[in-house]
Write a structure and sequence with these properties.
This protein is α+β, with helices and mostly antiparallel strands. The chain folds into 4 domains: 121 residues, Immunoglobulin-like; 136 residues; 112 residues, Immunoglobulin-like (Sandwich); 112 residues, Four Helix Bundle (Hemerythrin (Met), subunit A). Helix content is 26%, strand content 38%. It is built from 9 helices and 30 strands. The strands form 8 sheets. Strands 21, 23, 24, 25, 26, 28 and 29 form a 7-stranded mixed beta sheet that branches. Strands 11, 12, 14, 15 and 16 form a 5-stranded antiparallel beta sheet that branches. A 4-stranded antiparallel beta sheet has the order 1-3-6-5, with no helix packed on it. Helix 5 runs antiparallel to helix 6, helix 6 packs antiparallel against helix 8 and helix 8 runs antiparallel to helix 9. It is extended and about 135 Å long.
Length: 590
């Protein structure tokens, strides 16, 4: 009987061990049937840890959350229980019956797969409204809206996107932070300053709300067709009323964290018409004036004058080239100096751009500067227009002629005088000399002798002190890392300045400089260079929010440089902004 009990216990232990060793990997859906306006949760659970998890292709759904990962590890009566879960939150794209295919994972060298799940998506259903649910109250009383000025612009026509946060008087917002900033691929973009914005009163869906303008951006589309504007997403900490009351009868507030998004916006960009397009059209779109002028019209040869070609008005001033100037060969022309005086607001770019040529005439005479034309696409009339300058005549009053007469050459040769030689050909040699005696002096026991003798004894303490400082500096491994990163930041910032005009090389060098500066200033390694980590550390050092935003915008410019046409003026602005931002961080960081 005693032996039988041992055998039974042994059998139970072996059975439990076998059951624990059996791998389970399965998919679970929160519901098998849902409305098109509902959300579906899919959990992929396993009882042993694995590698290389590959989710299925959710082609008929939009992933609105996840993957979220959770791990449960416990011991009950000596038996280990382990569960790891990957969770996804899905929104159906359309009605129908869909199959969520298999997910795979590798556990101890073996590949395991889940069983496919069928899900039926029906027409929209009425979602129960629970006024006591804090999440429901938060969803109903706060909204993030992206207002687009125009959804079907022409190529290079300015549009604006204004992001507004609407908050109902029923709830209170404690704080928020951006978790995903919009990227304007295939757009030239300029953010408008929204500092010191005040909360305003307005309406949303016919109800009274308060709203705050979070961001204003001017966009110029650089491609035709359907272009996507990615959403702005915020994580908001807020308080909503609960069904509980305080001793005075007022509702108690409950804290809720909610993620909201402005949603994707699609812009349908129209191509400029081909009919009537001038041959010299360079992409100018807007309403412009054109002017060609000179600093003077009368001068002497070898004097200089300034020839100024200027376009002013409202439009994509930074995104097209001015017409080139063609002058007679007798006028020496230098490369133009490009000047931009452009401001960007919600109406787009406004101001002027100009090319200033330095012109130097070489010969006497009159030289006409032919008229110069400039063409652009007028958005008001939706047609091309051409502006032309008047002809300008440059009168060179004094100077050599543009050809020399042969008779003049002969006369000049006949007027040459013969060279007269002097009989005393060696008069320049000095034959009388004056000698002076040299007094012999001795170096021994002079002041210089004693100074040089004592110098090694004075240098020994100095050398010992320098050696100690060097040893201390060499032992400071952490400080050496910071100094090295700071040196690299200066090096790359210098490299970026040298690469002005070369878009890719410039922005690669600028991005390296910013990263190495952060490593030196925030005492972090390359592996920690994430946007959230950078924002967190800068806030801990009491750096102003506007400076952090400017720093992030520079990094974003580096990322988007390959997609956006950028000229040297924009590169110079980004370089100056980077230098200014680094200086502000140095002043503010504690």
């Amino acid at each position: 009987m005693h032996i039988k009990n041992y055998i039974a216990v042994l059998f139970i232990v072996m059975a439990s061990t076998f059951a624990a060793a059996q791998v389970k990997f399965e998919a679970k859906a929160s519901k098998q049937k849902l409305g098109v306006n509902e959300r579906l949760r899919i959990d992929f659970e396993m009882n042993q840890d694995g590698d290389n998890f590959n989710p299925p292709d959710f082609s008929n759904f939009t992933i609105v959350g996840g993957p979220n990962q959770s791990v449960s590890n416990s011991w009950v009566q000596g038996v280990r229980s382990y569960k790891k879960t990957y969770s996804y939150f899905l929104a159906p794209k359309s009605r129908g019956t869909f199959t969520i295919s298999q997910a795979t994972i590798n556990i101890e060298g073996e590949t395991y797969k889940t069983t496919p799940i069928k899900v039926e998506v029906t027409a929209a259903v009425d979602i129960p409204k629970d006024p006591n649910d804090p999440n429901y109250l938060a969803a109903e009383n706060i909204h993030l809206v992206a207002e687009v000025s125009k959804t079907n612009p022409y190529l290079n026509e300015a549009i604006t996107v204004v992001y507004k946060l609407y908050v109902s008087p029923k709830v209170a917002v404690d704080n928020w932070n951006e978790i995903d900033s919009p990227r304007y691929n295939d757009f030239w973009s300029q953010n408008i300053d929204t500092q010191n914005q005040k909360v305003q009163n307005g309406t949303y869906n016919g109800e009274d709300y308060r709203f705050l303008v979070l961001r204003k951006t001017v966009l110029y589309p650089q491609k035709t067709g359907k272009l996507n504007i990615e959403p702005l997403s915020l994580n908001i900490a807020m308080r909503v009323p609960s069904n509980r009351r305080d001793i005075f009868g007022g509702f108690l507030m409950t804290r809720v964290n909610r993620t909201i998004s402005a949603g994707n916006k699609t812009i349908n960009v129209k191509a400029l018409p081909e009919a009537g397009k001038p041959a010299d059209f360079t992409g100018a779109v807007g309403d412009f004036k054109f002017d060609v002028s000179t600093s003077k019209t009368e001068l002497d040869a070898t004097e200089s004058l300034q020839l100024n070609v200027r376009v002013s008005g409202n439009g994509n001033l930074k995104l097209f080239k001015l017409p080139k100037v063609t002058l007679p060969s007798s006028l020496e022309v230098y490369e133009p100096e490009h000047t931009e005086n452009v401001k960007t607001n919600l109406a787009g770019m406004q101001g002027s751009i100009s090319d200033s040529y330095t012109v130097v005439p070489q010969f006497k005479g009159k030289y006409p500067i032919p008229n110069i034309s400039f063409s652009y696409f007028d958005l008001k009339t939706e047609s091309y227009k051409r502006l032309s300058s008047n002809e300008i005549v440059i009168d060179v009053l004094n100077g050599p002629s543009n050809g020399v007469n042969s008779n003049e050459n002969n006369t000049a040769n006949n007027n040459k005088q013969a060279v007269v030689y002097n009989d005393n050909q060696f008069a320049f040699i000095k034959t009388d000399t004056t000698f002076s005696s040299i007094k012999q002096s001795h170096f021994f026991k002079t002041d210089l002798f004693w100074y040089l003798l004592l110098l090694p004894f004075l240098a020994i303490p100095l050398a010992i002190l320098i050696g100690k400082q060097k040893a201390k500096r060499d032992a400071d491994v952490y400080g050496n890392k910071i100094r090295k990163a700071d040196k690299l930041a200066r090096k790359y910032l210098s490299s970026a300045k040298k690469s002005l005009g070369k878009k890719e090389a410039f922005y690669i060098a600028l991005e390296k400089a910013l990263h190495n500066y952060l490593k030196a200033k925030l005492h972090i390694e390359t592996s920690e260079l994430s946007k959230d980590r950078i924002n967190e550390l800068l806030k801990e050092k009491d750096v102003e929010e506007t400076v952090i935003t400017d720093f992030n915008s520079i990094l974003q410019s580096c990322e988007l440089a390959r997609y956006t046409p950028i000229d040297i003026v924009t590169m110079q602005d980004d370089y100056d902004k980077a230098a200014k931002t680094i200086s502000l961080i140095d002043k503010q960081a504690k």
